[in-house]
Amino acid sequence: MSHPAYGVRREVSPSAAVVLENNPSTMTLDGTNTWVLRAPGSAECVIVDPGYQDLDHLPLLTEQGPVAMILLTHHHPDHTEGAPWLAERVQAPVRALDAALCRDADPFADGDVISAAGLDIEVLHTPGHTGDSVCLRVGDQVLTGDTILGRGTTVLTDLGSYLDSLRRLVDLPSGLLTLPGHGPEMADLRVIAQEYLDHREQRLDQVRAALDKLGADATARQVVEVVYADVDRALWAPAEHSVKAQLEYLRRG
Fold it and tell me: Which of 79, 161, 179, 218 could form a disulfide with 214 if both were Cys (CB 3.0 to 4.6 A apart)?
């Protein structure tokens, strides 16, 4: 599926629309997806991940109707930086797993169900990309933040936690629509999570093979130069973060 022009609200399902921020990069893909959630017939909406403090993007979010709440999937600024500006303009609370990101509301926790804009939004703590990463399940769709992207793979800080998070998503019912923080929406989260899990296992095998070649004390950069030799070097820096997580995982046994 293709994205709309920047700053154009696009309906994805009866209860979810996306406004794409104009901040493309190797890390953000086409840009940050800001999700607008509301039950059919609800005047209010929930805004998820308002993006940077981008004064071309944020005013568009104030036009989506009364905002009941702003939710954040994790702390990275391409998802959260604009939240205080938006919260002040629309007089809405901000909630996240990390209390430091919240405004006029308590942090949420794994398993919480947030009722707003006619919807029940279930919080799934899915650490790995960051320690505070969450997915948000809304009926038959799941907002995955940066845990699963619309294309490619995500940068990791903790591989063990990430593998557990993927297994949790694999255990969800089949057929759930995937609404990522970057890139296009995708069908069947369970299938995609399994593909991510398989990919991580393959990468681990490649890292093990690189260590056999380079020696057990090889640095993450040395491993990247072997495992990612056929990948654009512009992606080597983020890859190095993920390889560090893989090395820590393997060295912990």
Answer: 218
> DSSP per residue over 113-149, as a string?
EEEETTEEEEEEE--SSSTT-EEEEETTEEEEETTS-
Sheet holding 134-138, edge to edge: 113-116, 119-125, 134-138, 141-145, 177-180
Confidence category of residue 1, pLDDT binned at 50, 70, 90: very low
Query: Which two tokens mark 179?
Result: 């609404």
Q: What is the pLDDT of residues 118-133, one digit of tens each?
A: 999 999 999 999 999 9
- Separation CA 104–CA 227 (nearest Å): 46
Please state, in angstroms and rounded to a whole number, the distance separating the CA atoms of residues 12 and 207.
38
Q: What is the dihedral of CA 195, 196, 201, 203, to 10 degrees?
A: 120
- Cα(170)–Cα(188) distance, integer angstroms: 10
DSSP code string of 183-220: S--BS-HHHHHHHHHHHHHHHHHHHHHHHHHH-TT--H
Q: What is the pLDDT of residues 154-200, one digit of tens each?
A: 989 999 999 999 999 999 999 999 999 999 999 999 999 999 999 99
C-alpha to C-alpha distance for 228 and 233, rounded to whole angstroms: 8
- The answer to whether the pTM exceeds 0.90 is yes
Contact between residue 50 and residue 69 where contact means Cβ atoms under 8 Å apart: no
Rounded Cα–Cα distance for residues 97 and 133 (Å): 8
B/e letters for 142-163, b = 16+ CB within 10 Å, e = fewer, are: bbbbbbbbbeeebbbbbbebbb
